[in-house]
Specification:
The structure holds two protein chains of two kinds.
Chain A: H1 2-13, E1 21-27, E2 32-40, H2 45-53, E3 60-71, H3 73-88, E4 92-96, H4 100-112, H5 126-163, H6 170-180, H7 185-207, H8 216-254, H9 257-263, H10 268-307, H11 311-321, H12 325-331, H13 333-350, H14 356-388
Chain B: H1 2-6, E1 9-20, E2 23-34, E3 38-43, H2 49-56, E4 64-69, E5 72-73, H3 79-88, E6 89-92, H4 104-112, H5 120-133, H6 150-161, E7 168-172, H7 180-197, E8 200-204, H8 208-214, E9 217-222, E10 225-230, H9 232-236, H10 241-248, H11 250-267
Parallel strand pairs in B: 3-8, 3-9, 6-7, 7-8
Antiparallel strand pairs in B: 1-2, 1-4, 4-5, 9-10
The chains are: A alpha/beta, B alpha/beta.
Chain lengths: 390, 268
C-alpha cells in the first residue's frame, strides 16, 4: 500500500508530458524578457523550438526560468540554440531564477553543443567514375588471383601429405565426407528424381506431336547424364557446402582461432582446407552418380505412367540408344566443380573480418560466387566437348 | 543508513528468485536503489549480476519475487504502465548492442521515434547533442557501429540509452575491455552525466577502479542474494571471506591507493 502512496505522490511532483509549458515574451527596446513555466522536455521540444525561433528580438534577453518545474537536455538544447542565435547577432541570453538542477543541465548541454564539421566531400565526375571502375576491375582480378592462390595452397598441402602420409587428417576427412556427401544424398536424389519426372513429362508432350514418344528415353538419358545430373548436384552442393565452409572457417577466423593455429605451428591450409576440399572432391562424383541413377528412375517412372513405355522397354532403349560416353562426359566435370566450390568456400571464410555482419555477407557471397562459377565452368566444358565433337 | 531512509527508492526488489533448470541463481534477493545515486553491483563470475540487471529491466522473468521501478510493478504491471518505464530508463549493454544496420546517429534516434511530436530535424539535432554529450566526435554520427572502436561503441550505446533523458541508466560492465585511460575517461563521463543530469546509475562491474572512483554505494552479490550494501568503508569491515578477499586483495589495495592519490591531489 505504501508503494501506491508513493506512486500517487510521484505523479503529482513529476509533471506529466501533457502538462506542457507556457511561454511569454515581452519585447523591450533592446532585447526582451522571456518567461517560461511548466516542463521543458523532449515531448514539447518541437513547439518550444518553434516558439523560440519566432522571437524576432535580438540583443539582451533575460530568460526567467523561475516557474519551470522540470528541464531535460532537449529543453536545454532549445534554449542553447536560442542563445547561439542571439550571440551570433551580437546579443546574449541571461538566465534568471533557475534551479541548481536546471543550471547544471543547461551548463552541460551548452558545453556539449555539437559543432558541425563537414565530412570530406566525395566528387562525382568522370574521373571519380573511372577511378571506381578501375578499382572494381583490379578487385575482380585480384579476387581471381587469390582463388588460384588457394587452389595452389590446396595442391601443395595435398602434395606434402602424399610425401608424408602419416600426417594425413583421416578423421576429419571422414567427418567432412559424411557432412558433405552422405547427408546430401536425400536432397540430391529427390532433386534428380523430380528433374527426371519433369523431363519425361515435358518431353513426351512435345514428342507425341511427331509420334516419336520413344525418343523421350534418349532425351532423358542424354540430358540427365551429360548435363543436368551433375550440374544441378553441383549447384545444390554449392549452396549447401560452400556456405557451410565459409561459416565454419569464418567463425574460426572471427574468434582468432586461425591465428592461434598459426602460432601453434599448424597450417590452416593443411588442417582446414585440405580435408574439406578433398572430401568434396571424393563425394561430388558419387553424388553425381546417385543423381544420374535417380534422374533416370524418375524419367522411367513418368514414361511408364504417361507414355506407357514399360521399364524393360526403357532399359533396352537406354542401352541401345545412349552411349556410355555421356556418363563420362558428365562425371568428368564433377572434380572440377568440387574444386571450384571448395576453393570459393574456403577463400570466403578467410576473408571474414571481426564482425558478425561480415560473416553473414561472406557466407552469402560464397554461395553466389560458387554457383556462378560452377555454371561458367560448365559452359566452358560444353564448348570444349562441342569442339572435340564428343 | 538513516540518511537512506529519507531518500526516494526508485528500484525496489523483494524476495527475487531466479533459476535456470535446477540451478538457482538468486534466492530471496532484496535490493533498494535510491534516486540520484550511483550503485555498483559486484560479485564473482556466475553470481547473477547480469541476470539481476535483466530481471529489473524485464528481459528475464524471475521465478518468484517482486520488482518495482518507480513504484510500477515490472513483473505484473499493466502493459501501459510498463511502457511508460521504457521512457524513464535506459540500458547500455556490454558491447553497446547498437543496431548494426544503422549509423550511430540513427541508433540514437531510435528511442526518440516513440515521441510523435518530435520533428525529424530536431530529432537529428538532439541525436547530435547526445553524441557530443557522451564525448564522441561530430563525424562519428555518420559511422556504422562496425567502424567504431570498442570504447566508442560503448559511448554510442550510452548515448542511445540517454536519448530520452531517462531517470535511471543501467550499465552492464561499462569499462570492460577498455584500456585504463579509456576506462577512467568513461568513469568520469558517467559521474559527470549522473551529477549534471540527476541520473540514477545502476552499474554492474568487475572494475575496482570504477567502484572506487564513482560509486556512491556498492551491493555485493554472493550466496544467491545481496549480501551487503554500503559504501566502501562499510565493505572494508565486512567479514565474509569473498567480500574480504575482494576488497582487501592486492588489486583492491592498488585501486584504493590510486583513488586516494587522486582525491589528495584534488584537495591540494
Amino acid at each position: 500500500m505504501r508503494a501506491q502512496d508513493i506512486g500517487a505522490e510521484r505523479l503529482e511532483t513529476r509533471p506529466v508530458a501533457e502538462n506542457g509549458f507556457q511561454m511569454q515574451f515581452d519585447a523591450t527596446g533592446d532585447g526582451g524578457q522571456l518567461s517560461l513555466s511548466g516542463a521543458l522536455t523532449v515531448h514539447d521540444v518541437t513547439r518550444l523550438h518553434q516558439q523560440l525561433s519566432s522571437i524576432a528580438g535580438t540583443g539582451q534577453v533575460t530568460a526567467d526560468l523561475g516557474a519551470v518545474s522540470h528541464i531535460d537536455t532537449a529543453g536545454a538544447w532549445a534554449l542553447s540554440t536560442f542563445e547561439q542565435r542571439l550571440s551570433a547577432a551580437g546579443g546574449a541570453l541571461h538566465v534568471a531564477n533557475a534551479s541548481d538542477n536546471a543550471l547544471q543541465v543547461l551548463k552541460s548541454v551548452r558545453d556539449a553543443m555539437p559543432k558541425p564539421e563537414t565530412p570530406p566531400r566525395q566528387r562525382m565526375d568522370l574521373r571519380a567514375f573511372l577511378e571506381a571502375t578501375g578499382r572494381a576491375v583490379v578487385k575482380g582480378v585480384s579476387f581471381a588471383l587469390e582463388l588460384t592462390g588457394y587452389l595452389g595452397m590446396f595442391f601443395s598441402s595435398l602434395g606434402r601429405i602424399l610425401v608424408n602420409p602419416r600426417k594425413f587428417p583421416l578423421t576429419s576427412l571422414v567427418a567432412h565426407s559424411e557432412d558433405v556427401g552422405f547427408r546430401a544424398v536425400p536432397i540430391v536424389a529427390l532433386m534428380a528424381f523430380l528433374i527426371g519426372v519433369v523431363l519425361a513429362f515435358q518431353g513426351s508432350a512435345q514428342l507425341r506431336q511427331f509420334g516419336a514418344e520413344v525418343f523421350v528415353v534418349d532425351l532423358i538419358a542424354i540430358s540427365v547424364l551429360r548435363e543436368l545430373g551433375i550440374l544441378l548436384t553441383a549447384i545444390i552442393v554449392a549452396g549447401r557446402t560452400a556456405s557451410a565452409f565459409t561459416a565454419a572457417i569464418g567463425s574460426m577466423k572471427m574468434r582468432e582461432e586461425i591465428d592461434a593455429m598459426r602460432t601453434l605451428g599448424l597450417d590452416p591450409a593443411m588442417v582446414l582446407f585440405l580435408p574439406r576440399i578433398l572430401a568434396l572432391l571424393l563425394m561430388l562424383p558419387i553424388l553425381g552418380l546417385i543423381a544420374n541413377v535417380s534422374g533416370l528412375l524418375g524419367g522411367a517412372l513418368m514414361s511408364w505412367l504417361e507414355l506407357g513405355i514399360s521399364p524393360s522397354m526403357f532399359r533396352i532403349r537406354l542401352i541401345e540408344g545412349t552411349d556410355i560416353s555421356h556418363v563420362f562426359v558428365g562425371l568428368i566435370k564433377a572434380p572440377v566443380f568440387a574444386l571450384v566450390i571448395g576453393v570459393v568456400g574456403c577463400h570466403a571464410g578467410m576473408q571474414v573480418r571481426g564482425t558478425a555482419e561480415s560473416l553473414g555477407r561472406m557466407t552469402s557471397n560464397a554461395v553466389v560466387t560458387a554457383i556462378f562459377a560452377v555454371i561458367v565452368v560448365d559452359a566452358f566444358f560444353s564448348i570444349f566437348f562441342a569442339e572435340l565433337g564428343i | 543508513m538513516t540518511d537512506n531512509d529519507q531518500r526516494e527508492v526508485v528500484i525496489r526488489v523483494r524476495g527475487l528468485r531466479n533459476q535456470f533448470g535446477t540451478h538457482v541463481v538468486h534466492e530471496d534477493l532484496d535490493l533498494d536503489v535510491y534516486r540520484g545515486e550511483i550503485i555498483g553491483i559486484v560479485g564473482g563470475s556466475g553470481t547473477g549480476k547480469s541476470v539481476l540487471l535483466r530481471s529489473i529491466t524485464g528481459l528475464q522473468k524471475p521465478a518468484a519475487g517482486s520488482i518495482e521501478v518507480f513504484s510500477v510493478d515490472v513483473l505484473h504491471g499493466t502493459e501501459e504502465a510498463r511502457a511508460t518505464l521504457d521512457e524513464r530508463w535506459g540500458v547500455m549493454f556490454q558491447d553497446g548492442a547498437l543496431f548494426s544496420s544503422l549509423t550511430v546517429r540513427e541508433n540514437v534516434e531510435v528511442p526518440m521515434r516513440a515521441i510523435h511530436e518530435l520533428s525529424p530535424e530536431i530529432r537529428r539535432e538532439l541525436a547530435d547533442l547526445k553524441i557530443s554529450l557522451v564525448g564522441l566526435p561530430y563525424l562519428a554520427g555518420d559511422k556504422y557501429p562496425s567502424e567504431l572502436s570498442g570504447g566508442m561503441r560503448k559511448r554510442a550505446g550510452l548515448a542511445r540509452a540517454l536519448a530520452l533523458d531517462p531517470e535511471i541508466v543501467f550499465l552492464d560492465e561499462p569499462t570492460a575491455g577498455l584500456d585504463p585511460i579509456g576506462a577512467a575517461a568513461f568513469d568520469t563521463l558517467i559521474r559527470t552525466l549522473s551529477r549534471s543530469l540527476g541520473l540514477t546509475v545502476f552499474l554492474v562491474t568487475h572494475d575496482l577502479d570504477t567502484l572506487y572512483a564513482i560509486c556512491d554505494r556498492i551491493a555485493v552479490l554472493a550466496e544467491r542474494k545481496v549480501l551487503v550494501t554500503g559504501d566502501l568503508q562499510d565493505m572494508l569491515s565486512v567479514k565474509h571471506p569473498w567480500v574480504h578477499e575482494y576488497f582487501h586483495g592486492p588489486r583492491a589495495r592498488a585501486a584504493m591507493d590510486a583513488s586516494a592519490g587522486a582525491t589528495g591531489a584534488k584537495e591540494e
